[in-house]
Amino acid sequence: MKSNLLAALAAFAAFGAPLTTHAQTQLKPGLWEQVGTVKSQSGQVEKAMAEAQAQIAKLPPEQRRQIEQMMAERGVGIGNGATTVRLCLTAADVAQGNIPVQNGDCTQKIVNRDGNVTKVSFSCQTDPPVSGEGEVRVISPTSNVMTATVLTQINGQPEKLDTAQKGTWLGDDCGSIKPLSR
Q: Which InterPro entries match (predicted)?
């Protein structure tokens, strides 16, 4: 279950990377924070995330601090039913209209652009495979919202995840967060 959950969440995070488009409003380069929720048909994802949080909370303080620090160094946090991912969007990404993605064998395709709304499809050749469709709405140079439907398998059973994210620009300096691979 854990590897299946991680694959599904990785696809969610990959989709959640700020999508720069040649829309009327361009996103600012720098450090972005994406805060999102996932709702699964079966409820297994939510249950697994709650169990992971409970396990982390039970760890001795030093071990818990190490795990939280490791996650923070990767720009990831979980809590209160939401996942937080911090991403570094470079000026080159903005200028070129790149779609940064997480490491892995994932592809994303722009299906349609209409003003500040971009519809995308994505597919990851992970184990299990993950695919879906989503929409990115650029609200301003420092804000975006995204929704997606993700199809995958959890414990060998088909699963549909509905995701929603809000992206907020935090500043010019990405600090220790490295730009995502392409």
A: DUF3617
Q: Quick check: 115 and 135 in contact, CB under 8 A?
A: no
Residue type, 39: K
Domain that includes residue 33, residue range:
2-161
Contacts 24+ apart (CB under 8 A), 71-75: 73/176, 75/177
pTM of the predicted model as reported, rounded to 2 decimal places: 0.75
Judge whether 180 lies within some domain. Answer: no
Quote the radius of gyration of the chain (alpha carbons, Å).
16
Cα gap 2→7, rounded to integer Å: 9
Tell me how many domains the chain contains.
1
3-state secondary structure of 172: coil
Which H helix or E strand runs over 118?
A: strand 117-124
Q: Judge whether 176 lies within some domain.
A: no
Supply the pLDDT for residue 16: 47
Q: Is residue 168 part of a domain?
A: no
Give just the sign of the alpha carbon dihedral 101, 128, 35, 148.
positive
Model pLDDT for residues 18-40, shown as the tens digit of each residue:
454 445 678 899 999 989 888 98
Say which DSSP state 129 is in: -
- Give the C-alpha distances (Å, rounded to integers) separating 83 from 39, 46, 52, 167: 12, 11, 12, 12
Six token digits for residue 33: 């924070």
